UniProtKB/TrEMBL annotation:
InterPro entries attached to this UniProt entry: Isoprenoid_synthase_dom_sf (IPR008949), Polyprenyl_synt (IPR000092), Polyprenyl_synt_CS (IPR033749)
One MF annotation (Gene Ontology) recorded for this entry: metal ion binding
PROSITE patterns per UniProt: POLYPRENYL_SYNTHASE_1, POLYPRENYL_SYNTHASE_2
Keywords: Magnesium, Metal-binding, Transferase
Family: Belongs to the FPP/GGPP synthase family.
Cofactor(s) named in the record: Mg(2+)
GO biological process, one term: isoprenoid biosynthetic process
Organism: Streptomyces roseolilacinus
Pfam families registered for this protein in UniProt: polyprenyl_synt
Name of protein: Geranylgeranyl pyrophosphate synthase
Composition bias type Basic residues, residue spans: 125-136
Region entry Disordered, spans: 115-139
Length: 357
């Protein structure tokens, strides 16, 4: 099914100079990530060739691709706020910190979800479980793999702080809020799966904490703060939360109806793990049969997928995503922004909400 994307206007694209500045900062962020991780690997392998293993796990994930959404929104917030070349070093450090924090979240999330694939390759814990088995080491291979992944995720968290330390101190409060929201949101996600209560409001809160704030709102706010534009905090919050919710709903739909080949990670994992996603919360509120099927192991995922289509939940969620994007973009209408950057943020909202991978 094609996502019900609103027609997007193409009348406010960035100028050549604005696009060049954006691409320059994104390229500089990639160099910062590469150089930082390369230096760390050299430092630790110089101590002992085996000591670089956690750094290698982070590097493998960072270099495997990814959409770089968080750095992109941080850079966009800075440039949309009128930030100039004098602040480029600070925004590059912040953007790099956001991507390494994302690596921390993914590595730990894969362990908690028992996921075996990420970005088309084995997850960190699965990779190191295999290393243990191939080398015939002592102990439980799976426990070893999980231990390596947990430590690599912890190291990525430390590295994100080191990178952010090179940004101006004015953003450290926002940075602390972002990290706290991410961890608490992750805990509530684990709790919701354990309790398995059909609570759409809790599911929405988790989606906002884990996606709305962490993926879009806080990175945008960090960029704007680096540009000295505290007046953009309110419109960027409304935009970030609503578009972030749309982003999470798209993620839920891709898990439910997509393929592993398209997403680079296992499809249907939320069903298998009984995760109370935003999609499932909305579905259970609409149709009690969804909860019954979700809990009954005699029904396969295909039966549940068919029900979400037949009872109209899938189409309703597609429409809701469109409404969220519209609401988020409307929040920018009264903000003091260059029209071209307003248009670019609209395009970015459409990009995250109507993506197919």
């Amino acid at each position: 099914m094609t996502a019900h994307a609103p027609v997007e206007q193409d009348d406010s694209r960035l100028s050549a100079a604005q696009r060049e500045a954006f691409e320059h900062l994104m390229a500089a962020t990639e160099r910062r990530l590469r150089d930082f991780l390369s230096d760390e690997l050299a430092t630790w392998t110089g101590t002992d060739p085996r000591a670089g293993t956690p750094v290698e796990a982070i590097t493998r994930l960072v270099e495997s691709g990814g959409k770089r959404l968080r750095p992109a929104f941080c850079v966009a917030g800075y440039l949309a706020g009128g930030g100039g070349p004098e602040g480029y070093d600070g925004v590059v450090s912040a953007a790099a910190a956001l991507e390494v924090l994302h690596a921390c979240a993914l590595i730990h999330d894969d362990v908690m979800d028992q996921s075996d694939q990420r970005r088309g390759g084995p997850t960190a814990h699965v990779h190191h479980t295999g290393v243990h088995r191939r080398r015939g080491w002592q102990g439980d291979p799976e426990r070893y793999g999980e231990n390596v992944a947990i430590l690599a995720g912890d190291l990525a968290l430390i590295y994100s702080d080191r990178l952010m330390a090179d940004a101006p101190a004015t953003v450290l409060g926002l940075w602390s809020e972002l990290r706290s929201e991410l961890i608490i949101g992750q805990y509530m996600d684990v709790l919701a799966a354990a309790e398995f209560s059909a609570d759409p409001q809790l599911a929405r809160w988790i989606a906002v904490a884990k996606s709305g704030h962490y993926t879009i709102h806080r990175p945008l706010a960090l960029g704007a703060r680096l540009a000295g534009r505290t007046d953009l905090a309110a419109p960027f919050q409304e935009y970030g939360i609503t578009v972030g919710e749309a982003f999470q709903l798209r993620d839920d739909l891709m898990d439910a109806f997509g393929t592993s080949e398209a997403s680079g990670k296992p499809a249907g994992l939320d069903f298998d793990r009984h995760k109370m996603t935003l999609l499932m919360g909305l579905a259970m509120e609409r149709d009690p049969r969804v909860r019954e099927l979700f809990l009954d192991p005699s029904y396969g995922p295909e039966v549940l997928r068919a029900l979400l289509v037949d009872n109209g939940v899938r189409d309703d969620v597609e429409d809701h995503i469109g409404q969220l994007v519209q609401k988020g973009c409307e929040a920018l209408a009264e903000a003091s922004l260059d029209d071209r950057w307003r248009g670019e943020l609209r395009a970015m909202a459409h990009g995250v909400a109507f993506r197919d991978r």
